[in-house]
Amino acid sequence: MIGTFHSLWKFEVLEVAIWSARAQDALQVLQLQPGFLRASIMHSADETRLYLVQTDWQDVGSYRRALGSVEAKLGVWPFLADMQDEATAFEKLLEMNVNEVTRFETSVNDGS
User: Fold this and answer.
1) Which of 21, 35, 61, 76 could form a disulfide with 72 if both were Cys (CB 3.0 to 4.6 A apart)?
2) What are the angstrom distances between the C-alpha of 103 and each of 65, 92, 93, 94, 106?
3) What percentage of the chain has pLDDT greater than the value 90?
4) DSSP letter at 8?
5) pLDDT of residue 111
6) Residue 112 has pLDDT above 80, yes or no
7) What is the pLDDT of residue 29?
8) Closest by CA position to 35, among listed 4, 78, 11
9) Residue 107 pLDDT more than 90?
C-alpha cells in the first residue's frame, strides 16, 4: 500500500489578513485538482509570525501534476514566492493510532 503525499509550506507572515486571503485563494485553486484530499492552515504557538500550510494528496503524481497545472502557475505559484526555502514535500511512511500501526511503501524514487 502506498502512503498519501503531503506538502508543508512555511511562511513568516507580517500582514495576516492579506496573507490569509492569498492562502485561501491558492488553496481553492488546488482544491479543484485531481488527487487533492485536504488542506490546512496552521499558526505557530511559539513564533507568532510563523504559519504553515499543509496540503494532502492521493499520491506524489497528483501533487506534481496539480502544481504543474496552468491554474497553479497563475493562482498558486505567486503565493509560494514568499514561502521559506526548505524541503516541502513528504510521503507518509508510517501511521500510528491507539490501536494499530500501518506502514506504507514509498512511491518516490530516491535515485539509488
Assistant:
1) 76
2) 25, 9, 6, 5, 10
3) 80
4) E
5) 56
6) no
7) 97
8) 4
9) no
Which amino acid type is present at position 62?
A: S
Query: Domain count of the chain?
Result: 1
Phi, psi of 74 (to 5 degrees): -90, -35
**Who contacts 99 (Cβ-Cβ below 8 Å, separation ≥6)?**
none
Q: Global pTM?
A: 0.86
> Which residue is associated with the grid cell 496552521?
42
- Grid look-up 500500500 returns 1
- Residue 21 to residue 70: CA distance in whole angstroms: 21
CB 75 within 8 A of CB 26: yes
CATH classification at residue 15? 3.30.70.100
The residue behind cell 503524481 is 61
In a domain, 73, yes or no: yes
